[in-house]
Design a protein that fits this description.
142 residues, Nucleotidyltransferase, domain 5
Length: 142
Amino acid sequence: MAWKTARDSNERVLSEINITPLTDVMLVLLVIFMVTTPLIMVESFKIKLPRAVTADTEPGKGAVVAVSENGLISLNGKTVTMDGLYEGLKTEFSKGGDKNVVIKADGATKHSIVVNVLDTAKLAGAAKLSIATERGERNKGR
C-alpha cells in the first residue's frame, strides 16, 4: 500500500490570500465612521439661538465660542472655563488664522455671561466679534 504525498500528486498547494473577509471588515468600518463622524462634530451641548429678522445667513469664519443656558462655555467644541477661553483664544490667534470670534449664546443665557465672554475675547486679541442668531420673524410682543 503506497501513500500519496504532495510531491507525488500533480495538485498544487493554494498559497493565495483570501481578501474577501478583509474587504468586508473594511466596509463595515467605513460605514461606522461615516455614521459616527457627524455625531462627533456636534457641539458639546445644545444651544437654542435667539431669533432675529436680520440674521446673517453665513455666520462668518473664525473661532466659535458657545455659551449654554446654564453658563457652560466651549471653544471650537471643547468645554473651557473663562480663563481657559482666554488662553485658548490667544493660542488660536497666535496660529495666524482669523482673529474673528463668533459667539453662539443660548437665548436664555444671562446677559452678564455673554458680556464677560465678549470682553474676554476682546482682551485675547479678537479683531471682530459676531453674535450668531437664527433667522426668524419679528416678535411683535416686545
